[in-house]
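queue> pop job 88
queue> type: inverse folding (structure -> sequence)
queue> payload:
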């Protein structure tokens, strides 16, 4: 066990149950293909890191999938909304004795190991680190102790999440990473050559 932990929040890759906003434009099957590509990209990025790793599944823990059982702790997300699910994951991680905990989603084709390493490094001198997303949310959140208030009273999935989170953290020392684009809708995906065969255009 290291003192650093990264949590990866994923949706179980099931037809019609993931990337639903993207699917409205390109169909469920193509949206599922792209989501599986995003999951594999995330796994490739995280595998290179020298920290502990945990996958949090939206529905059911899978023991036979792209997440190697020898590399990843595996858990199911618990909570009525995203905030509560993240709070529970962070709380459990700190209770286990981790000193720095990061969480990422699985929607970022631009994510690189350097972003995650930079986030851990920023926590040497900051209380919280945030990776801002272009849509007004965030793709990464990290902290050294549980900041419970930032998981409450948010309109999850909207462009207000980052701003309201930063407002909650105004008494803390916060570092921000490079802004990245997470893939939620057609406009997010259309610029990537790898996705073009599945965009029906």
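queue> result:
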């Amino acid at each position: 066990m290291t003192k650093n932990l990264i949590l990866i929040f994923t949706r179980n890759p099931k037809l019609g149950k993931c990337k639903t906003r993207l699917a409205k434009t390109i169909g469920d099957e193509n949206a599922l293909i792209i989501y599986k590509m995003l999951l594999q990209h995330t796994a490739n990025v995280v595998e290179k890191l020298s920290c502990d790793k945990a996958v949090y599944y939206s529905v059911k823990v899978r023991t036979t999938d792209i997440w190697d059982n020898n590399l990843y702790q595996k858990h199911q997300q618990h909570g009525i909304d995203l905030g509560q699910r993240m709070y529970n994951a962070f709380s459990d991680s700190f209770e286990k004795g981790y000193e720095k905990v990061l969480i990422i989603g699985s929607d970022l084709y631009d994510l690189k190991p350097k972003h995650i390493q930079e986030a851990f490094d920023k926590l040497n001198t900051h209380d919280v680190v945030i990776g801002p997303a272009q849509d007004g949310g965030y793709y990464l959140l990290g902290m050294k102790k549980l900041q419970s208030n930032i998981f409450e009273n948010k309109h999850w999935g909207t462009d207000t999440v980052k701003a309201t989170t930063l407002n909650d953290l105004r008494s803390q020392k916060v570092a921000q990473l490079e802004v990245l684009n997470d893939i939620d809708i057609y406009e997010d995906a259309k610029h990537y050559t790898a996705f073009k065969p599945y965009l029906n255009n």
